[in-house]
Amino acid sequence: MLYITILELLLLYRSRLGTDLSEITLEYVSSISDDSDIALYDILGSEAHVLMLYEGDILTRNEAKKILIALESLKGEKFDSSSGAEDIHELVESIVIKKAGIASGGKMHTARSRNDQVSLDMRMKIRDDICVLCNYLLDMIEVMLSLAQNHKKTIMPLYTHLQQAQAGLFSHYMLAHADVFLRDLERLHSVFGRVNQSPLGAGPVGGTSIPINRHTTASLLGFDGLVENSIDATSTRDFVAEYVSILAILMTNLSKISEDFVIWSTSEFSFIELADEFTSPSSVMPQKKNPDILELTRGKTAEIIGNLVAILSTVKGLASGYGRDLQQIKSAVWSSSKTSISAILVLKSILLTMRVNEKQMKKATESGYLVALDVAETLVQKGVPFRTAHKIAGGLVKLAHDGKKRLNKLSKSEISKIVKGTGADADFVLQVVEKTSISSSLKARKSLGSSGYGEQERMIKDRIKKINSYRTITTKIENDISKSLDEMALRVQKLTG
Ligand code: ARG
User: Which atom of ligand 1 is nearest to the CA of 204?
Assistant: First the structure.
């Protein structure tokens, strides 16, 4: 570990100020402990900057070489948070000056500022996190699709108000969540384009008189373009708020499916059984198998929503131009990424290992009157107005419920009582009631996107196609970034080797 003590650290920034910061103030001001997440990006950004300065004859070959050798030696280094530096930018520059000497190292910060630097580092970190998230999301959605594939015939109740509503299929339920997470993926892909713009070279706020080439650094670092306006580039954090709001939405989606599984894993429901490794025991009740992991996803979702609120509250009152308040939002971003990534991985493993209790799902479906709407719709198909059919089906359910029997066990005289005066034919209603089962209902359900048997295979196939095309796009994004960084590494090597 590199250890630079407070005394050894070159006091880079305090030229105008007479005194040094006290230890307590320094600790208060310093972001060094949040900066380990961007240390590598800071080094890469500096390398691109130095290469550009060299190409523009602002640095000599020898100066660039010395700085790059120093920067290369810092890669993979763990930075000590007690170094006395205000942040990673000061620490890296200070070490470079120590290693390369002030005559060369002192030129590294020509034509840039910590303000464009920190925005650059954040953009590089977030774009990498987006790629990780997209890949893991794709893996998780793939597991959902394979569960859907295996459960195209698994009947379950669908709920509204947590009351049984219609008969459905477990594949349909899984496909619903696959679609939700595909939208999260789409949002991440779309924000990527706005994140992957280089702010480097914007300087503190108004640019520089040194003849830099901002396009060069942007392309060396694999950016799609520039955040052109230097005020915008240094002071805007809308890309951060947008990214974290996408994560907050993603987490609420993970939280919702977690809540379903918490309910379904109770002994009262028993629709699923979670694998032992995804449950927790009680310290006192030996029989317990608690769904703590899923509960934690619910809890951590609140945390990410809190992070979003913290970020928005920070930026809403800031005047244009960099303000140090912006330093505070970094940890909220890092922890939002980390938590979301883990939550996806954990849910994927839960999906892979849980047991789906098909019998119990079917039993629950059959115990209610879930075919009521299907009975009404069959009458509608024979010309009965829907409102009348609704009334008849409702009356039949009430009668069956009072008599503690199933709909198809109602007698002709019971049915006649309900049908009387509606204009419908009692014999026909009896026939419909006798013939309508959960399975016949699911066969008859043909509307696009419904629980009908026929819709499942079509939707699964379509979503598999979607996943494949998103995989291709994600891989291309990743390859483009690594290609640029690899090319830059070669140029660094050429100069330093
Ligand atoms: N540590 C700061 C941050 O994380 C870097 C920028 C500081 N700029 C300044 N002008 N004080 O935001």
Answer: 10
> How many CB atoms sit inside 10 A of residue 452's CB?
19
User: In this structure, are residues 204 and 13 in contact, taking their beta carbons and an 8 Å threshold?
Assistant: no
Q: What is the largest CA-CA distance in the chain?
A: 103
Enzyme catalytic residues: 161, 282
Between CA 355 and CA 274 the distance in angstroms is 6
CA distance linking residue 458 with residue 273, whole number of Å: 28
User: pLDDT tens, 143-183?
Assistant: 999 999 999 999 999 999 999 999 999 999 999 999 999 99
- DSSP readout, 217-233? HHHHTT-SEE--SHHHH
**Which residue, among 76, 97, 126, has the nearest Cα to 4 in the 3D structure?**
97
CA angle 136, 140, 142 (to 5 degrees): 115
Q: Would you call 163 helix, strand, or coil by DSSP?
A: strand
Rounded to the nearest whole angstrom, what is the distance from the C-alpha of residue 303 to the centroid of ligand 1?
25
98 alpha carbon – ligand 1 mean position (Å): 22
Residue 439, both tokens: 């399975």
In whole angstroms, what is the distance from residue 134 CA to residue 476 CA? 12
Q: Enter the pTM of the model.
A: 0.93
